[in-house]
Amino acid sequence: MLPSENRLRRREDFAAAMRRGRRAGRPHLVVHLSGGTDPHTVGEDASPPRAGFVVSKAVGNAVVRNRVQRRLRHLMRDRLSALPAGSLVVVRALPGADGAPYDQLARELDAALERLLGGVRP
C-alpha cells in the first residue's frame, strides 16, 4: 500500500498529470508523469511524489481490476524514491494487463519511467 502522502486522490491532480504531463506507453500500461511542481503548495517545501492508478472496466471485472491495481500500486511503491519531489504519476492499465506476469509489468513500468525521467533508471 502507498503511504497516504504519496497517493493521488483528487480529480484535478489526475487531470493535471494526464493533460500537462508527458506520456510513455507500453503494451500493458501507459504512464503519465507531470513535472516536479505541485500547484497546490505555494511557498512551501516540495511535496513528495504522488501516484494514482486508472484501471477501466475494459481490463476486467471488479476482482480483476482490483488485483491489477494492487500489483501496480506495489510496483510503484518501490519506485517512488526515483521520482522528483512534487511529481504526479498516473499509471493507466490497458486491457490485457490482467494476464501479464508480475515481472513483465515491472519491466514495462521501469521502461516507461526510464523514458520519462530521461534515462535515469529507477
Give structural notes:
A hairpin with a 3-residue loop joins β1 (22-25) and β2. The chain is globular. With 122 residues, the chain is of the alpha+beta class. The longest helix is centred in the middle third of the chain and has 16 residues, at 62-77. The protein has helices at 11-20, 62-77, 102-116, and strands at residues 22-25, 29-34, 50-55, 88-93. It has one domain: Ribosomal Protein S5, domain 2 (2-Layer Sandwich), CATH 3.30.230. The protein is built from three helices and four strands. The model has no long low-confidence stretch (mean pLDDT 88). It has a four-stranded mixed sheet with strand order 1-2-4-3, with helices on both faces. Belongs to the RnpA family. Consists of a catalytic RNA component (M1 or rnpB) and a protein subunit. Its EC number is 3.1.26.5.
Structural class: alpha+beta
Helix content: 25-40%
CATH architecture: 2-Layer Sandwich
* Total domain units: 1
Number of continuous helical runs: 3
Question: How far apart are the termini?
Answer: 19 Å
Strand order of the largest sheet: 1-2-4-3
Proportion of residues in extended strands? 15-25%
CATH secondary-structure class: Alpha Beta
Low-confidence stretches: none
Helix and strand sequence: HEEEHEH
Question: What profile does the largest beta sheet have?
Answer: 4 strands, mixed
Subunit structure: Consists of a catalytic RNA component (M1 or rnpB) and a protein subunit.
Catalytic activity: Endonucleolytic cleavage of RNA, removing 5'-extranucleotides from tRNA precursor
Pfam families: Ribonuclease_P
EC number: 3.1.26.5
